[in-house]
Specification:
The protein contains 15 helices and no strands. The chain is mainly α. Helix 9 runs antiparallel to helix 10 and helix 9 runs antiparallel to helix 13. The chain is globular, with a radius of gyration of 29 Å. It starts with 17 loop residues before the first helix and ends in a 15-residue tail after the last helix.
Length: about 400
């Protein structure tokens, strides 16, 4: 015959001993200290990054560049080239590309925008039909433009005797810059080289150092996903931006716009900064057009071509090529741009999306951390009893 109340005869859970209560209080204190320390670190990190810009900025930029170059390094190593030589080839190729970009963009840009004080009258004449719609605003702009032209002309005349020519290469830029800039660039180059030279060994040691097979596989997956997503995004966006710059340069060349390669390079570079970069590029093209052409509609045509081509690229070409794997929430992009732009300025804005890609890939591959659950439920605040009454 079954006993309906047989479960009542089981031993009730024993109350915690004084030692267990002391351990529970200690764990609660450790959890509180950990939580407070984590919140404090999270709040202090942006200010530490901003204060340590001279160290963290070149280091972060070098690491992002190195991660993007890893597929090229692995491709060279598969041809049985030693890691040190393969890393040297990657760094040399990157520096050559940067030198070409500098020669194509910065040198003519400096020469072109030096003409701005002389072209204030033409710009004002081109904008006159628009300014006539706002008579009160026109007077203010006239006074401001005249003061700006007079001040700029005087400053140009004063600096004409001591003004140095613009840098014609990356070597000239480094030589004409402050010693700290040279140190930062040299430090970044060394980081990229040694990261690539030791990449294969570092990855192998990181994976094999895990205590379990599942941990090793998870680590390998995270590393591979970070490399694949970062290099795929930067490589694809670079090709798209380069194509956009070439297309715009061809259109401007057909219009007779001076320095079409420079404008194409500016558009390609600024297109790395989502949302804000194309706006700045369109404003610069509008300014450059009003400096060159006398007809307002022709002067605004370069900016109109840039806006139309960017809309086509951003809404059709890039989503079609990049796909859903690397799709990022626009709100996250804006937050990342705002944060890194505040911390590191223009360089931070250029690095914002790659950093967000890396963080998003790590979180997606490794799993979202449940800090609250770890601290307050499954971690130190819950004592699992071993023995009678334990679950």
């Amino acid at each position: 015959m079954d006993k309906p109340y047989e479960g009542l005869n089981e031993a009730a859970p024993s109350p915690p001993t004084p030692a267990e209560e002391a351990m529970l209080r200690r764990d609660r204190l450790l959890a509180a200290v950990t939580l407070i320390g984590g919140v404090g670190l999270l709040l202090a990190l942006p200010f530490a990054l901003k204060a340590g810009t001279e160290f963290f900025l070149p280091l972060t930029a070098a690491l992002v560049i190195a991660i993007a170059l890893v597929p090229v390094l692995e491709w060279i190593e598969r041809r049985r080239v030693p890691s040190s030589i393969a890393a040297l080839l990657c760094v040399t190729g990157f520096l050559a590309a940067a030198n070409v970009a500098l020669a194509a963009i910065i040198v003519p840009a400096v020469a072109f925008f030096r003409l701005l004080p002389e072209r204030i009258g033409r710009i004002q004449m081109n904008l006159k039909p628009i300014l006539e719609l706002y008579q009160s605003l026109e007077k203010y702009i006239d006074r401001t433009a005249m003061k700006f032209a007079a001040g700029s002309a005087q400053s140009v005349a004063r600096a004409a005797q001591t003004q140095q020519p613009p840098p014609s290469s990356l070597v000239d830029l480094i030589a004409s810059s402050a010693p700290s800039v040279f140190v930062h660039i040299f430090f970044g180059i060394l980081v990229v080289y040694f990261f690539l030279a030791g990449w294969t060994r570092l990855r192998r040691e990181t994976i094999t150092s895990r205590a379990s097979f599942s941990g090793a596989m998870a680590t390998a997956r995270v590393i591979q996903d970070v490399v694949d997503d970062t290099s795929a995004y930067l490589g694809t966006i670079t090709v798209i931006n380069f194509s956009l710059g070439v297309f715009l340069a061809g259109c401007l060349w057909a219009m007779g716009m001076p320095y079409p390669a420079m404008w194409g390079g500016i558009v390609a570079l600024l297109n790395y900064v989502p949302y804000f970069g194309p706006i700045v590029a369109a404003v610069l093209l509008a300014l450059g057009g009003t400096m060159v052409f006398t007809d307002l509609w022709v002067a605004l045509m370069p900016a109109a071509i840039m806006v139309a081509s960017h809309l086509l690229e951003a809404n059709v070409i890039t989503p079609l090529i990049v796909g859903h794997r690397l799709t990022i929430n626009p709100i996250m992009i804006l937050i990342s741009l705002s944060f890194w732009g505040w911390v590191w300025g223009t360089a931070g804005a250029l690095l914002a999306v790659p950093i967000l890609i890396i963080a998003q890939t790590v979180v997606a591959a490794a799993g979202k951390p449940d800090i609250a659950g770890f601290l307050f439920e499954h971690g130190t605040l819950e004592q699992r009893r071993r023995g009678g009454g334990g679950r």
